[in-house]
Amino acid sequence: MNRHMTVRTSRGFTLIELLVALFITAILFAMGYSSLSQALNSRREVETQSARLSALQQAVRVIEQDIELMQPRPARDLLGNGYDAPLVVSQNAQAGGSMQSAGSMAGQQGPALLSFTRGGWANPAGVPRSELQRVSYLLRDNKLIRQHLPVMDTTAATAVVERDLLDQVEAVSFRFMDESLTWSATWPTSPLQSLPPATLLRARPVAVEVTIRLKDLGVITRIIEVAG
Questions:
Q1: H or E stretch at 87
Q2: Distance CA 184, CA 176 (A)
Q3: What pTM was computed for the model?
Q4: Is position 54 within any domain?
Q5: What pLDDT does 93 receive?
Q6: Domain count of the fold of the chain
């Protein structure tokens, strides 16, 4: 009796039992892999969106800093025949024109959306230069690009410093508020046209509205007050 019971208790798993166990294990592994894959995909999407939002915030911060520090200082044109206004807005640039605007920089490909003079250019190295900087923004290949010149009054041989701010940009537009608190898509605004040429040359807006239309994030609008 004891020998018979010992033989029965030492019997191993049958083939069917092993197959069932393997099947259950495979299901658990498949469920675990699916959950892990979904978690990894979600993490990648979150990281991508976070990087995108960070790039957008950085680009907007650069634009805000430039416009806030806009200065009423004209810049000599490339031919040395006169001066460009402190703020030059290109109407052709909004439509993606290929002609250079009056405020274009040397070596610039396509017209700038706008060009202006800003102050507060940091100089931690103590380089002998002005704190003023001539800045331009343009749209090329769905990229918002910032350009600046190393000196204010330049020639055609002056090299332009270029930086890509943001990609997937479909359009960029601006509106300008003058001292009468009137918004206009052009600059100078109609009320300023009657000013003397010397006064008009140094005119600048009270505030600038910047609208950026992105392929993935829609429309972003910021109203930036010009200091002073």
A1: strand 87-89
A2: 5
A3: 0.73
A4: no
A5: 44
A6: 1
d(CA 143, CA 123): 28
**Residue 184 reports pLDDT greater than 60:** yes
| φ, ψ at 160 (rounded to 5°) | -95, 135
Main-chain dihedrals φ then ψ at residue 28, nearest 5 degrees: -65, -40
What is each CA distance from 156 to 76, 131, 216, in whole angstroms? 11, 21, 38
CATH number (domain holding residue 130): 3.10.610.10
AA identity, residue 217:
L
- The average pLDDT across 71-87 equals 82
Q: Give the pair of three-digit tokens for residue 158.
A: 């002056």
Is there a domain that residue 37 lies in? no
Distance CA(90)–CA(224), nearest Å, equals 19
For residue 107, the model assigns a pLDDT of 45
Separation CA 162–CA 107 (nearest Å):
10
As separate numbers, helices (DSSP H) first and strands (DSSP E) second, the chain gives: 4, 11
Residues near 104 by Cβ (< 8 Å), separated by ≥ 6?
90, 111, 112, 115, 136
Residue 101: Cβ within 10 Å count: 22
Confidence category of residue 194, pLDDT binned at 50, 70, 90: confident
Range of the domain at 194: 61-225
- Burial environment of residue 95 by CB neighbours within 10 A (0 to 12, 13 to 18, 19 or more): exposed
Q: Which residue has the tokens 């030059």?
A: 88
